């Protein structure tokens, strides 16, 4: 799993190598899906973008945010694993 942002000020900004590497892209809010699509308009095939529907109103490493992300990502991975098996 990797983490990358869409803003110029992101600690690590999403790039084409991330898109080539990823099976799925998880975003907290729909606006990030739109931003990724606008950043890479000519990219041949984006991985599926999954909306976690978590408001981006938390500070970096906020314990509540970490809990929300952990639960959402684990749920997504469990569902994906069930689909494969």
Please describe what this structure looks like:
The chain is mainly α and 85 residues long. It has one domain. Helix content is 45%, strand content 7%. It contains three helices and two strands; from the N terminus they run H-E-H-E-H. The protein has helices at 16-21, 30-39, 63-84; strands at 25-27, 49-51. The chain has a two-stranded parallel ribbon with strand order 1-2. Helix 2 links the parallel strand 1 (25-27) and strand 2 (49-51). The longest helix has 22 residues, at 63-84. The protein is globular, with a radius of gyration of 13 Å. The chain starts with 15 loop residues before the first helix and ends with a helix. The model has no long low-confidence stretch (mean pLDDT 92).
Q: What's the helix count?
A: 3
Q: What percentage of the residues does DSSP assign to strands (E)?
A: 5-15%
Radius of gyration from CA coordinates: 13 Å
Q: Let me know the largest β-sheet.
A: 2 strands, parallel
Give the % helix: 40-55%
- Taken together, the total number of domains comes to 1
Overall pLDDT level: 92
Globular, elongated, flat, extended or rod-shaped: what is the shape? Answer: globular
Order of helices and strands: HEHEH
Spans where pLDDT lies below 50 across 5 or more residues? none
* N→C terminal distance: 21 Å
Number of strands: 2
Q: How do the strands of the widest beta sheet line up side by side?
A: 1-2
Q: Which structural class do you get from the secondary structure elements?
A: mainly alpha
């Amino acid at each position: 799993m990797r983490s990358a942002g869409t803003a110029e000020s992101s600690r690590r900004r999403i790039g084409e190598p991330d898109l080539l590497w990823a099976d799925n892209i998880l975003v907290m809010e729909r606006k990030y899906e739109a931003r990724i699509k606008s950043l890479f308009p000519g990219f041949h095939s984006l991985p599926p973008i999954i909306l976690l529907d978590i408001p981006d109103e938390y500070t970096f490493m906020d314990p509540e945010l970490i809990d929300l992300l952990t639960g959402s990502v684990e749920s997504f991975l469990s569902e994906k694993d069930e689909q494969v098996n």
